[in-house]
């Protein structure tokens, strides 16, 4: 009887030990690895949007976390803990712009920069797909003219309008820029006395842009190229008609939807017109501005 009791006791004890060990195994936390971001050139997105990192594993995006950027370009976080197996198998890093309160677990269309992992590091830029594109050959021209002024005669006021393309009858496209993926658009700007004034957004170079709120009349929308005349509805702090001579003109790349009424950080083309810039048929060439593009590395 005692022998049977002792054997029964050992059996119960072994079961307790086995269950205890099994429970410990279930409670083990997943192994994580560190993802380190070293990115320059990002901008403050305001309170409604954040940046979010993603790694691609077998064609599937996996989030690495979100962060903000202050006015000095400093990231709120540069180090992220990611599942070790996920990070080890990642082939690409992508940085997107996302709503701060985002109900969608998938990446947005606003894929800003990306990079392919080579060993433990990915060099990121706008050039690597699915980022917005390669701007190394960006170029373009503009001319001064006021085609929406329906007054008789020239009126010698061509200094009050700027259009992106080649002058002619009609003007033709004159921008050499990559076709943008979904979620992005180009926007023209003239820097006025109180700040940047939008000339409208566009994705095609041989069509009118999103609108001409400052132009001469509603009956004349202007030529089949992006641009603007500056006669009506002057923004606060500006005096119209606006003389664009001596001012900076910029082409930017903007997220859609846009996070700000000001130009986004990507400004591939810019020019400061001379004080005596001549009207069409004279045309002026933009300067390439790739220093406005974010770059960096991601290390796992």
Can you describe this structure?
This protein has 300 residues and is mostly beta strands. It contains two helices and 18 strands. 10% of the residues lie in helices and 35% in strands. The protein is elongated.
Q: Strand order, biggest sheet? A: 3-2-5-6-7-18-1-4
- Overall structural domain count: 2
How much helix, percentage-wise, in residues?
Answer: 10-25%
Determine the N-to-C terminus distance.
Answer: 63 Å
Number of strands: 18
Mean pLDDT: 89
Rounded Rg = 28 Å
Brief description of this entry?
With 300 residues, this protein is mainly beta.
State the main characteristics.
300 residues, mainly beta, 2 domains, 2 helices, 35% strand, 10% helix, disordered N terminus, 8-stranded antiparallel β-sheet, 5-stranded antiparallel β-sheet
């Amino acid at each position: 009887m005692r022998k049977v009791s002792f054997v029964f006791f050992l059996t119960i004890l072994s079961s307790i030990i086995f269950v205890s060990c099994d429970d410990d195994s279930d409670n083990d936390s997943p192994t994580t690895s560190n993802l380190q971001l070293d990115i320059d050139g990002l901008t403050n997105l305001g309170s409604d949007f954040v940046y979010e990192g993603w790694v691609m594993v077998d064609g599937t995006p996996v989030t690495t976390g979100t962060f903000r950027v202050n006015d000095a370009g400093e990231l709120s976080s540069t180090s992220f803990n990611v599942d070790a197996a996920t990070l080890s198998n990642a082939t690409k890093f992508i940085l997107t712009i996302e709503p701060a309160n985002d109900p969608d677990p998938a990446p947005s269309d606003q894929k800003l920069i990306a990079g392919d992992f080579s060993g433990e590091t990915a060099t990121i830029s706008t050039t690597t797909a699915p980022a917005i594109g390669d701007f190394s050959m960006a170029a373009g021209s503009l001319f001064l003219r006021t085609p929406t002024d329906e007054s008789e005669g020239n009126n010698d006021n061509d200094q009050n309008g700027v259009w992106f393309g080649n002058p002619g009858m009609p003007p033709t496209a004159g921008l050499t820029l990559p076709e943008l993926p979904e979620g992005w658009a180009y926007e023209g700007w003239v820097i006025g006395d109180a700040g940047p004034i939008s000339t409208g957004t566009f994705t095609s170079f041989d069509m009118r842009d999103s609108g001409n709120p400052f132009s001469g009349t509603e009956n004349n929308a202007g030529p089949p190229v992006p641009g603007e005349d500056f006669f009506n509805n002057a923004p606060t702090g500006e005096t119209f008609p606006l003389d664009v001579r001596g001012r900076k003109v910029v082409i930017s790349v903007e997220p859609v939807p846009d996070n700000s009424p000001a130009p986004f950080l990507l400004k591939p083309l810019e020019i400061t017109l001379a004080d005596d810039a001549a009207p069409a048929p004279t045309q002026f060439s933009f300067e390439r501005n790739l220093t406005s593009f974010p770059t960096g590395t991601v290390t796992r």
